[in-house]
User: Which sequence fits this backbone?
């Protein structure tokens, strides 16, 4: 295992970096995976703190290299601030135009059907594809992938599926602020929809996996070709 997985987690959340898959010659076997589309864009950690006078509060967006990209889109930043339903949170996500303009203007809309007890009795999340006319400009959105901390409580040792459940209750979704869709195998029913929305691959993650900021995940792997079985 790379040494960065044994390094202490920084005390300051602003020094955290996104976890990434462990690159190996042979793809790992992942037991009980969840599957989500592979987003293109800038991987970013959102640091949110609610304001005493209401939204938008205080926020910072820090990319994988530690660069502050908070001022990249002030209008989007305001929408993010109004969408987070917590006193404070650290959210792993991606800044992308793919959520608002993908392929021929397809937008993924997530309709979660995974309930509170689903960590023991998981069900698939329904995923619909809504077609839109292509926008002349590329509209940036924030797509939330994972939840690292909420109300001062780190969630590193909470299983991924439970973190995603909490994340869904945390984010009030809108046109430019989304929670990434995910499903459980078999993924074949969703491949055509994902390909139609312009996704070039998928990410498999262990439903029981933990999170280490800045670390390598041995139970994540990327599939760069989506094939639909007829």
Assistant:
């Amino acid at each position: 295992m790379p040494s960065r997985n044994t390094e202490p987690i920084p005390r300051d959340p602003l020094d955290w970096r996104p976890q990434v898959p462990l690159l190996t010659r042979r793809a790992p076997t992942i037991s009980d995976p969840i599957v989500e589309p592979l987003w293109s864009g800038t991987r970013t950690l959102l640091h949110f703190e609610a304001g005493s006078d209401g939204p938008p509060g205080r926020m910072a967006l820090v990319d994988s290299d530690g660069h502050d990209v908070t001022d990249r889109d002030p209008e989007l930043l305001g929408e993010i601030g109004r969408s987070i339903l917590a006193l404070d949170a650290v959210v792993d996500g991606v800044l992308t135009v793919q959520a608002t303009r993908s392929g021929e203007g397809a937008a993924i809309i997530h309709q979660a059907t995974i309930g509170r007890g689903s960590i023991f009795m998981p069900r698939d999340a329904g995923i619909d594809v809504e077609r839109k006319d292509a926008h002349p400009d590329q509209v940036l959105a924030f797509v939330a992938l994972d939840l690292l901390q909420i109300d001062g409580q780190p969630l590193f040792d909470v299983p991924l599926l439970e973190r995603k459940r909490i994340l869904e209750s945390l984010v009030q979704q809108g046109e430019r602020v989304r929670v990434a869709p995910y499903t459980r195998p078999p993924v074949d029913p969703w491949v055509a929809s994902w390909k139609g929305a312009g996704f070039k691959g998928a990410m498999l993650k262990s439903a029981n996996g933990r999170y280490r900021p800045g670390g390598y995940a041995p139970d994540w792997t990327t599939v760069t070709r989506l094939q639909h079985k007829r």
User: Anything to note?
Assistant: The longest strand covers residues 141-150. Residues 102-136 have pLDDT under 50 and may be disordered. The chain has one domain: 3-223. Residues 3-223 form a domain with the D-amino Acid Aminotransferase; Chain A, domain 1 fold (CATH 3.30.470.30).
